[in-house]
Amino acid sequence: MRELSWLQVIALLVKPVFIVILAILGQRLSVAGFRSLETRLLQRWAAVPERKGRIHTLVQLGQHTVNVVIVTIALLMVLHTLGINILPLLTGAGVLGLALSLGTQTLVRDLINGVFILLEGQFELGDTIQVGDHVGVVEQMTLRVTHLRDEKGNLHILPNGDIRMVINLTKPRQTGVSIQEPE
Q1: 148 CB contacts (<8 Å, ≥6 apart)?
Q2: Which of 2, 74, 113, 148 is an S-S bond match for 156, by CB 3.0 to 4.6 Å?
Q3: DSSP assignment of 135-149, as one string?
Q4: Cα–Cα–Cα angle for 163, 166, 172, nearest 5°?
Q5: Integer Cα distance of 172 and 152 in angstroms
Q6: Which pLDDT score, from 0 to 100, does residue 180 have?
Q7: What are phi and psi for residue 156, nearest 5 degrees?
Q8: Three-state secondary structure along 85-135?
Q9: What confidence tens digit (pLDDT) does each residue in 12-54 have?
Q10: Fold that domain 123-168 belongs to in CATH
């Protein structure tokens, strides 16, 4: 094995350090961009206060997803610049991803249903809803589960993937608009 001089070591580390700096900059820019997006959406939907929580949740989800992508790409680039063959890592990650996807189908279904519940505004925190035989007040919502507290004080934790039909007992019935013609 050959010895490296200090100059060669510094030259070897410049690229990875530059990649890390760019990743940090990209992460900070994405945070600023998502904060700006959230502010604009909140201003646009200021007249609809129940959307505030939904907007915040979706923006946080998007920000987290972008951060994971940035860190993953930066890590792979650093490993590649250090001379580590990333092809076996990517292959292994693909096989592991396939195995996990087969094993976590219900988790993915829960998450997808959770996103649709939030996007469609089917119910909010504090709403009284009925899901199957369960009736209660929504105490907590995540992308994976919904927590209902019934009138007896029992806490029902329902996976969002199992929520097929919801009856929202809080939202008032929407009636048609009547227009009176001038006499």
Answers
A1: 129, 131, 134, 135, 136, 137, 138, 139, 155, 156, 157, 158
A2: 148
A3: EEEEEEE-SSEEEEE
A4: 155
A5: 24
A6: 55
A7: -110, 125
A8: CCHHHHHHHHHHHHHHHHHCHHHHHHHHHHHHHHHHCCCCCCCEEEECCEE
A9: 788 999 999 999 999 999 999 999 998 998 888 777 766 777 7
A10: SH3 type barrels. (2.30.30)
Q: Give tens-digit pLDDT for 138-149.
A: 998 888 899 999
- Closest residue by Cα to residue 16 from 86, 83, 82, 84: 82
Res 174 pLDDT > 60: no
Domain edges within the chain = 7-103, 123-168
- Record the tokens describing residue 145, joined without a space: 């589960």
Query: SS3 of 84, please?
Result: coil
Q: How far is CA 146 from the centre of its chain?
A: 15
Q: pTM for this one?
A: 0.57
Could you count the other beta carbons within 10 Å of the beta carbon of residue 148? Answer: 23
Instruction: Give how far the C-alpha of residue 116 lies from the chain's centroid of Cα atoms, to the nearest Å.
Output: 12
d(CA 74, CA 78): 6
Q: Which residue has the higher pLDDT, 174 or 67?
A: 67
Q: Which two tokens stand for residue 48?
A: 């609809």
At the top level of CATH, the class of 7-103 is mainly alpha
C-alpha span between 122 and 50 (Å, rounded): 11
